[in-house]
Amino acid sequence: xxxxxxxxxxxxxxxxxxxxxxxxxxxxxxxxxxxxxxxxxxxxxxxxxxxxxxxxxxxxxxxxxxxxxxxxxxxxxxxxxxxxxxxxxxxxxxxxxxxxxxxxxxxxxxxxxxxxxxxxxxxxxxxxxxxxxxxxxxxxxxxxxxxxxxxxxxxxxxxxxxxxxxxxxxxxxxxxxxxxxxxxxxxxxxxxxxxxxxxxxxxxxxxxxxxxxxxxxxxxxxxxxxxxxxxxxxxxxxxxxxxxxxxxxxxxxxxxxxxxxxxxxxxxxxxxxxxxxxxxxxxxxxxxxxxxxxxxxxxxxxxxxxxxxxxxxxxxxxxxxxxxxxxxxxxxxxxxxxxxxxxxxxxxxxx
Length: 351
Fold this sequence. Notes:
By secondary structure, the chain is mainly α. The chain is 75% helix and 0% strand. The protein has 17 helices and no strands. The chain has helices spanning 9-16, 20-42, 54-73, 79-88, 90-95, 97-114, 119-126, 129-141, 147-170, 177-181, 184-210, 216-238, 247-252, 256-278, 281-303, 309-326, 342-349. Helix 2 (20-42) packs antiparallel against helix 14 and helix 9 (147-170) packs antiparallel against helix 16 (309-326).
């Protein structure tokens, strides 16, 4: 349900964030993703290749997420109760196969796409997901977005197109505008967009709906367990399973920057789950859009990647879209959240 239009920055913030905790989750989510893009870019060599197995990095991140979710859940229940929760909710474990596989694909494609795009362009192109997220959100949660909300989502998409048009002009791979726009790298971006959209909204649906009766960290445990299996499958498919944990492979990921990627990615996973549970997928897309501004400035200082006029215009459009959405955000509650059990649900899921 849409909230009345209010004026002023303070009112807009109250519309978006019901508590300071929600605001901290929002800021933490952005900071971690900005840091991830910069760290991944910093580990590329002069040929835009990674001197380590990227799937192994993603897999180790999933192991850390699994251990963290297990440890945090044991703060509130015994080991026996945890095991009982796992075996009594195998259906939810199976439901998490879908988002975990899509997140696995998303995380691995992030390395591929960041090898072909600078971080600012990469994050701008990922904003194509905002409209797709809006459609999936309406279907799964049976909520109709308002005209103002849709306008803000479309503005986000237009900002991405402005940036991509400039990128096309700089591309020398082909004289054909059609082939420039639909090159293999953009196809991979679109696949990553789909993975992000569907996995994010479906994960939120499980956290607030079908899996709502299962404790928050137990659901995360299911997600990361399924993700580990998915990453092993990717290694097997690529024929690199036997090479993923050799002495040389382990040595290549034991460098400071690569380990930072592992732990930062693990923190992203936990924070994203909290974001989807406490806030919603629509606001998550706007957090991702705001990352662009900070990433552009930081990459300018760190890597010397210039912020041209097209990037500046795109960032301005995205910023206005965020302000427009802040005046009339999506209500975080869902139909599955009944008033008489909200207190007990929060008691089980707060971290």
